[in-house]
Amino acid sequence: MVTCESPIAVIDSGVGGISVLTRLWEIMPQENYIYFGDSKNAPYGVRPTEEIKRLTFKSAEKLIERGAKELVIACNTATSAAASELRIKYPDLPIIGLEPALKPAALSGGHPTVIVMATELTLREKKFAGLVERFRDNAEIIGLPAPGIVELVETSRADSPEMDEYLRKLFSPFDKEKEYCIVLGCTHFPFAKRSIRRVMGENVKLFDGAPGAARYAKKQLEERGLLRPDGQPGSIRFENSDENSIPLLKSLFESYEL
Ligand code: DGL
Fold it and tell me: Is 12 in the pocket of ligand 1 (CB under 6 A)?
């Protein structure tokens, strides 16, 4: 039986979901977390939808079987591919997904130009098409796949000359004098924030869906009476399908700038 002592499961295609785990930990430090990254199979974003669905179910069910009281899919790509089917199969489990924070960016005023950086899968799936449909009158919306960031973050190069070079090429079609809103629509991308600012300028406005998702995860537990009492020490177990990536999970968690 699930109780407030049961763990919160957090999954991602790899190390990116740590940018969500830090937000969860910030507002629920009394909880016990199991983080599972599937770095062996990352990147997900360039794979067919059915394959991502299968991989996401595999990671999720491994942790559900261990008695998780909530599942946080800390991955926009896995959310687009598998969240609705997971919710059908596990109707009693709160399942929190990540989606690109297009709403606050599009509604930030003055009909902004919004660049939504995400994986190819996120940009081609129904969930994103629905978001664009809702906010197309409020902003000019440009989808920009950036698979190279995932690879660089997975190999400890989130803040590196290689990242700067990759981003300089990626953003070369954009006018650096213009003010853009950039949506970080993949949980690996917040780790490239410094590099994005170096390339696009300090005034660029960045939008990340993780803080909102963390607040929603907390609300879901509150409503079910499943929050652990405040003041108790929480814990995090870091797991990965590629054992070699576990030190990177820990160091990204410890060094992440909120
Ligand atoms: N971190 C994932 C996301 O939020 C995807 C990265 C990948 O392609 O594996 O979309």
Answer: yes
